[in-house]
Amino acid sequence: MPKTETFQDLVLGERKTHQELWRWLYTELRSAILDGRLKAGTRLPSTRNLADQYGLSRGTVVAAFDQLREEGYVSSELSAGTFVASAPAAKEDTVPKWKVAGKTTSRATLGRHTKGLFNPSFVLPSSRSIGMAFRSYEPAIDLFPVDLWARVAARVYRNAPRSLYGQGDPAGYQPLRRAIAEYVGRSRGVKCIPEQVVVTSGAQQALDLLARLLLDAGDEVWMEDPGYPGASQAFHAAGAKVIPVPIDSEGLQVGKGIELGPRARVAYVTPANQFPLGTVMSAKRRVELLAWAVRSGAWIIEDEYDAEYRYFGKPLASLHSVDASGSVLYVGTFTKMLFNALRLGFVVLPERLVETFERARSVVDRHPATLEQAVLAEFITEGHFGNHVRKMRQVYAERLHSLTEAASGRLAENLEVEAAAAGMRTIAWIKPKLSDRVVAERAARFGLEVVPISTFTAQYKQKPALMLGFAGCNANEINRGVEVLEKVFRTIGQ
Fold it and tell me: Is 361 in contact with 198 (CB distance < 8 Å)?
């Protein structure tokens, strides 16, 4: 090892508050070695001299040198001293073009299949406020019974056996699986036993896992168009070929799906409240879809994210409730029903898929948070969840009425706001010949959150429209939002 370099005084960075002295010195010396200020072969001063030079104790310097030696940055020779470790030096003519001023930039890239995969509009902003018009993804957080939830949580945490602090079941906490099975059986007609329920970190994780398990690269998947982007992105990520299938007044056009994707292995549908149009799949289409699945050996993923909130007519049974073949995989979530931060959802599976899904669930993140599951299980079994849903159904109906009333008075010339039959958001059709994206962008300048319907279309164009959420904002905020939209239309073109 050449030892021609001499140690120069180093300008050391400022020590961070509460940072140990030896770790500070070690970090500064390591940085000097990595960025070339201390070159390979440089002899370092003795620990005593370095301690005197920087006003440190000798023990502090010894500890820093020991760490550098352990990690291979320096080496020591008996009676010779401590030296910066050597590294192969590159010849000038072999230095790559991407090496600039002694520093290198990684050339590692993403996999080719990720190009153009993710839709930036699908990434929701973190909540710095709640209750703003017209967020389509936010329930009435202002009305969630926080004190009640806190009391249940405190009791669960206080009385939980120590086993709940250990490794959890990848399929979920058994009492919660039992509570979910009983609830969806009673409210949605889903016939299942607790062992068929697997708890996930929200509906999105359920869709992601189903896509990985059911599909091989190149497999065809029917996707509602317009439709939920989280589902299409999960299918794309699995390497599937997504086949957009148009929606009409009866829901997914099954015949068109057969024509466009005859070899499809999966169909994704939101039959109770189509996302984003709000269409209800007719009984005829449901029969056609189930018959196709049995005939083709295909799966149907039924996503019921907010079907509990229905304002007109009788409650609709789930597609799963009329499936005698075991073709329907039922996905649900508590995020929309309770609050966004509760990242808990579930999927109801045929028994033959449960073990495989559990293993896949374990690979992703081992298991869902057990203590949160225990709190939710108690919240459901004690009747609080059902009470909250019933209360919110009434509140959301009133907020929807506030929106349609305010819009009919101030936006009649520009928007036709539908009185949604179900869910937490509605469609507002734009009457003037304007792009819905232009309207949404202008609204954003005024601090208003609206979503253009065109962001959910893949192939089949819709009339320009906005998706307006009404569940998370009270009547005053709804009126403010309508006033802002009125201003938006008045200023477009100016």
Answer: yes
Token pair 């039992």 is found at 178
Q: What's the chain's length in residues?
A: 494
* pTM to 2 decimal places: 0.81
Residue 419 belongs to what domain range? Answer: 387-491
Nearest CA-CA partner of 418 in 351, 466, 365: 466
Handedness of CA 5, 9, 10, 16 (dihedral sign): positive
Nearest to 84 by CA among 33, 35, 24, 47: 33
Q: Are residues 249 and 288 in the same domain?
A: yes
Of the candidates 334, 346, 279, which has an alpha carbon nearest to the alpha carbon of residue 308?
A: 334
380 and 286 together in one domain: yes
For residue 87, the one-letter residue type is: A
| Per-residue pLDDT tens digits for 262-316 | 999 999 999 999 999 999 999 999 999 999 999 999 999 999 988 888 887 777 8
Q: How far is CA 478 from CA 89, 139, 275, 282, 310, in A?
A: 67, 14, 22, 32, 20
Q: How many structural domains is the chain composed of?
A: 3
For residue range 43-80, list pLDDT tens digits in order.
Answer: 888 888 888 888 889 999 999 899 998 888 998 887 78
The answer as to whether 32 is a domain residue is: yes
| Residues 356 and 414 occupy one common structural domain | no
Helix (H) or strand (E) holding 395: helix 384-410
Same domain, 281 and 317: yes
